[in-house]
Specification:
single chain, Molybdopterin biosynthesis moea protein, domain 2, 39% helix, DNA-binding, globular, 3 helices, 69 residues, alpha+beta
Length: 69
C-alpha cells in the first residue's frame, strides 16, 4: 500500500512540511526551536508534528519562511 501524500494528510512531520511547502530548512527549524507560541504545532510523545491547514494559514502571514529559488 502506498503512503498518502502530505497534501491529503491532516498532520505531517517537519520534513514533510519542508518538502510540501518548499521551505527553507534552516529558517523552519529555527522557528520550531523558538519560544514563540505556535498554533500549528502538536506533540506526539516527544515528536513535533505539524497541523497542515493551520500551518498553511501561518505561511500566508509569514511568507519569508519559503525557500528563495
Amino acid at each position: 500500500m502506498k503512503n498518502p501524500s502530505p497534501g491529503v494528510k491532516n498532520i505531517i512531520t517537519p520534513t514533510e512540511a519542508i518538502d510540501y511547502f518548499v521551505l527553507s530548512r534552516r529558517k523552519f527549524y529555527d522557528l520550531l526551536k523558538s519560544d514563540e507560541q505556535k498554533n500549528f504545532l502538536v506533540f506526539y510523545k516527544e515528536r513535533k508534528m505539524i497541523i497542515r491547514t493551520a500551518f498553511a494559514r501561518y505561511l500566508e502571514a509569514h511568507p519569508d519562511l519559503r525557500r528563495q529559488c
